Amino acid sequence: MSNLTTKDYFNQDGVKKKFNELLGKRSTQFITSVLQIVNSNKLLMAATPESIYNACTMAATLDLPINQNLGFAWIVPYKNSAQFQMGWKGFVQLAQRTGQYLRINVVDVYANQFKSFSSLTEELDADFSKDGEGEIVGYACYFKLINGFEKTVYWSKLKVNNHAMKYSQAYKSANGMTPWKDAEQFHEMAKKTVLKNTLSKWGILSVEMQTATITDQAIIKDANTLDVDYIDNTKEVIDKVNERIEMMLNDCNTIPDLNQFQEMLIAEKHILTAEQNELFNQKIISIRDGKNS
Questions:
Q1: CB atoms within 10 A of CB 274
Q2: Segments making up each domain of the chain, as ranges
Q3: Could you give the CA distance from residue 123 to residue 106 in angstroms, rounded to a whole number?
Q4: How far apart, in whole angstroms, are the C-alpha atoms of residue 47 and residue 49?
Q5: Is 254 helix (H, G, I), strand (E, B) or coil?
Q6: What is the pLDDT of residues 56-106, one digit of tens each?
Q7: Of 47, 36, 51, nearest in space to 84 by CA
Q8: Contact 237, 268 (CB under 8 A)
Q9: What is the Cα–Cα distance from 209 to 286, expressed in whole angstroms?
């Protein structure tokens, strides 16, 4: 099977059946578009068919088209493998599907628009009534939930660049291949990074959103079990999700607080790690011991 070309691999009955299960009548068109993308990219042509298939299966699972021009999701060659890549529009699409977002957007901020940003009060002073001119100096993300909760986040271009240098091995390498090194794609990657970080800390984490967060910029080994390999970057966003869960758990001081915490987990379909389960059990014992003392 490893000697098959990508075209032969995707022509297998099992592969066709899988995409038909995920996409129905759209499966044939999806496979055709994947093969066109691979054939137009020499580096993807050198990637293993299995890695291309797994990346495409993840896109199909999330029901996102693989087309860099559309900006929802795409597959990126990394050495001899294909890496699944979410676009910022893909994260917006998944957020909108939850039905919990009244507004959500992320934009480039130009020099003629930006005035100041307070990281303490999260007040962004920028004139977005002006068309952007000059240099892009940063990126702003905003969302408002139907319950009234809203959040504004701004990252300067320098902060985004430092983030890419810290988490992308290919970006740091002189010979590395990554969208971060393309002048136009840098801004798309920057907006995706700011949006993803914002949603992972303060947004509604649906099952699809958690799946996208885990698999973004990863080589997919198994789309069903979410077995992935972060060959170019670390799992910093996933760590932020876990940090958020643990902070919320630490803030629980009563049994009703823990009940609300469990309701939130059920609503977001979040599964606690072994360490988080231990912390949860310790919290119950601590609250009960406090009542009995």
A1: 7
A2: 6-86, 88-232, 251-292
A3: 15
A4: 6
A5: coil
A6: 999 999 999 998 788 899 898 888 899 999 999 999 999 999 999 999 999
A7: 51
A8: no
A9: 33
